[in-house]
């Protein structure tokens, strides 16, 4: 079949239209650390884009452009919330320690979506556990996965 009848991108054009990364439907609330992370990512992809343009690497240009659009949009929509001073209830930015019904103790800080990393002790405020914890007080018990967890400290 002749290439004239095929609608497939060829060569360098295959990477020009990478789909944008999905933007969350939730408010983009962040901690001060989260804003710094967003700004660092935007700066990194801006540098990546400049380097890709300097070498005319169209694949790298497309990837860096897409990622820069994402982080620029996240920066534009970021709402920095101050660290809470009230430690009687769990708020965005609170550090919460829980004891699960299997005896495990865990500590998490409730943060924005882009800065969340449960393995490093940060939970997105839209995660099920963070949603269960928000507004609760010391001693309250919340559903945590298949079990329960009692709030043992709020900082």
Q: Can you tell me about this structure?
A:
The protein is of the alpha/beta class. The chain folds into 2 domains: 14-80, no CATH class; 95-154, Chitinase A, domain 3 (Roll). Helices cover 32% and strands 21% of the residues. The chain is built from 3 helices and 7 strands. The strands form 2 sheets. It has a 5-stranded mixed β-sheet. Helix 1 packs antiparallel against helix 2. Mean pLDDT is 91; it is low at 6-15.
Poorly predicted regions:
6-15
> Helical percent range?
25-40%
Strand tally is: 7
The strand line-up of the biggest sheet is 5-4-3-7-6
Average pLDDT, rounded to a whole number, is 91
User: Terminal Cα separation, in Å?
Assistant: 68 Å
String of helices and strands = EHHEEEEHEE
Strand content: 15-25%
Number of domains: 2
Overall 3D shape: elongated
**What kind of sheet is the major sheet?**
5 strands, mixed
Radius of gyration: 21 Å
What structural category arises from helix and sheet content?
A: alpha/beta
- Helices, by number, come to 3
What are the salient characteristics of this protein?
2 domains; alpha/beta; 32% helix; five-stranded mixed beta sheet; 155 residues; two-stranded parallel sheet; Chitinase A, domain 3; 3 helices; single chain
């Amino acid at each position: 079949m002749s290439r004239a009848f095929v609608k497939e991108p060829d060569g360098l054009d295959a990477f020009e239209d990478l789909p944008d990364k999905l933007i969350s439907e939730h408010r983009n609330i962040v901690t001060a650390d989260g804003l710094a992370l967003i700004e660092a990512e935007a700066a990194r992809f801006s540098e990546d884009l400049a380097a890709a343009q300097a070498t005319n690497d169209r694949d790298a240009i497309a990837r860096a452009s897409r990622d820069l659009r994402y982080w620029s949009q996240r920066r534009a929509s970021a709402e920095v919330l101050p660290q809470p001073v009230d430690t009687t209830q769990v708020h965005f930015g609170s550090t919460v320690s829980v004891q699960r019904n299997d005896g495990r103790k865990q500590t998490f800080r409730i943060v924005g979506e882009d800065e969340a990393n449960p393995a490093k002790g940060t939970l997105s405020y839209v995660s099920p556990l963070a949603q269960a914890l928000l507004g609760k007080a010391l001693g309250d018990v919340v559903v945590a996965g298949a079990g329960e967890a009692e709030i043992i400290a709020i900082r």
